[in-house]
Amino acid sequence: MCKVKVSSEDLPGLYQSANSCSIRAQKVYFRSLMWYLLLLIVAALLPFLVKSTAMGALASAILFLATLGILIFLRVKRPDDIWYNGRAVAESVKTISWRWMMRADPYHDADTLDSVSRDFIRDLRKILSHNESLSHSLEARSGAKEPITDRMRECRGLSIQDRLAVYKKYRIQDQASFYSEKAEFNKRRASQWFWASVTLHSLAILILLFRIKEPAFIFPVEVVATAAGAALTWLQAKKHNELSSAYSLTTHEIVLIEGEALSVNDEQDLSDFVVSSEAAFSREHTQWAARRID
């Protein structure tokens, strides 16, 4: 049974600030993209709804102007970059925090706790300095939280087996549950958006074939085609297929990692185990970052 419960709220203030910053930027990015795609569909539909050709054209022009504004906003503000950089900082802080709590390399026991604490705070500064572009987006309130919390100190003071139990439950099992749920979620979303795109493409084909039989039939097939393209764009932006595969693979890797805990008997074993585990978590994040760049 774990003697200490460790949650994300017990991590350094820099983690809280970077994490909330990343989540906000992600929401802004996808909401902007969603409105961009919806306005494109409405702009394509308006000429068919407005009887006046001039009014329909004017309304469409206004909507296209709005979509242009969204594109400029995404280009200038770059919420996707803030999203990625915030996630990179948060994951880096989480990794070194768990290493510090477990007394893993490079935070082995020193002559005094102050000495190893100074090393940890120095590494926090390095992480922040490597992502200076994020500084204007970080929350001051959560960032003001102390870099080493009482819970972190309490966890570091536990015995080897107690620390191992905490790490297995609140780091490994927590991550395994997270990746498993995300893998299933993205698998469902990938299927839903794929079939939505297939349905819209099929509808456009049927409309065009029906026009051959009934030339007088008028239906905005251009709108359907635009909607089909929007569905495909959304699917590509969300990367549901890639994320489902990556999360599933990481889940299996974490389960295998947990089995290695049986060989932990001393401080060095625990350190090696934690370093190996954190490397696996970092590897998934690095692969995700590479897909974002692509």
Keywords:
about 290 residues, mainly alpha, 10 helices, about 80% helix, elongated
Explain the overall architecture.
- It is a single chain.
- By secondary structure, the chain is mainly alpha-helical.
- The protein has one domain (8-293).
- It is built from 10 helices and no strands.
- Helix 9 runs antiparallel to helix 10.
- The radius of gyration is 25 Å and the shape is elongated.
Q: Which runs of at least 5 residues are low in confidence (pLDDT < 50)?
A: none
Strand percentage lies at under 5%
N-C termini distance: 44 Å
Number of helices: 10
Which outline best applies? elongated
Written as H for each helix and E for each strand, in order along the chain, the element string is: HHHHHHHHHH
Summarize it.
The protein is an all-alpha fold and 294 residues long.
What's the SSE blueprint?
Elements: H1 13-49, H2 53-77, H3 79-101, H4 113-129, H5 140-143, H6 150-156, H7 160-213, H8 221-238, H9 240-259, H10 267-293
